[in-house]
Amino acid sequence: MTDSRRPVAIVTGASGGIGAATARRLSQDGFAIIAHFITRMEMAQALSDSIVEAGGDCWLIQADLTTVEGVDDLVAQVDQILAAHRHQELQGLVNNAARMLGPAFGSATANEYDAYFALNTRAPFLLTQALSKRMRPGSGIVNISSAAAHFASPGDIVYAMTKAAVESLTVNAAPALAGRGIRINSVVPGFTDNGHAAFQDPEVREHMSGFSALGGVAAPETVAEAISFLLSDRASRTTGTILDVSGGSTIGARPYASRRSLRDRASQ
Ligand SMILES: NC(=O)c1ccc[n+]([C@@H]2O[C@H](COP(=O)([O-])OP(=O)(O)OC[C@H]3O[C@@H](n4cnc5c(N)ncnc54)[C@H](OP(=O)(O)O)[C@@H]3O)[C@@H](O)[C@H]2O)c1
What is the pTM of this model? Predict the structure, then answer.
């Protein structure tokens, strides 16, 4: 049963590890959730069921954010949900959906380059542009960057470039949105156990751990905690910045890290 007082937050890529943890956390914070997915409907449905079972609200949206049409379709579906629940206002957006890792400097094709930038950078830009117009003052937007944007990894160059652009979007959109009382920030995760098989491989996990000054990999709930903070009134004076939850992966203290890309390592 919908609680008509709940503010609404959209999480793209909510069928993935960090997105699902974020949707659950924001629901606990009192948001009604619009959870986006593209292929893993069963993961999205399980997320929605768990939120509703815990007393929250969750609507599912399917859209391919690689295309402009898919972005427009997501916005149109959000409009339909908001029109059907007129007392619930949009107050949060988490631009989380992305293609991860690779392609490498030596092998990246123009098509791959465009596809990574379309999903990881253009979609957050267009969604921020369109959905911020539907937000009231006090709302917040969080873009998910990556520690990969902060160190050289030629094997993942295109992915890293998309995430550097996401941080630039955050900085440059902040003053544009501030006049409307909307804050925008980035979160920078390092390796975070999103449930993918690679995180079960001890050798791959050790490789990932070597990037972090604190060692280990993060739980998705740790990233969700930072997103929760940035969307809350506790961060009411925070905009245009990045919150690093990479376990110190961006400070260069990586005594055990290999310089090979994770993709090379996982495919051995
Ligand atoms: N996990 C890490 O180690 C790590 C580290 C640094 C940064 N990050 C960042 O954290 C965010 C979440 O990552 P994650 O680890 O949770 O990844 P994940 O589990 O692989 O989830 C990726 C999400 O993106 C969605 N997606 C993929 N292609 C899409 C498309 N064409 N259109 C729309 N949605 C699409 C997926 O939808 P379906 O599941 O429905 O296919 C899924 O919900 C990403 O921005 C990533 O770059 C992750």
Answer: 0.95
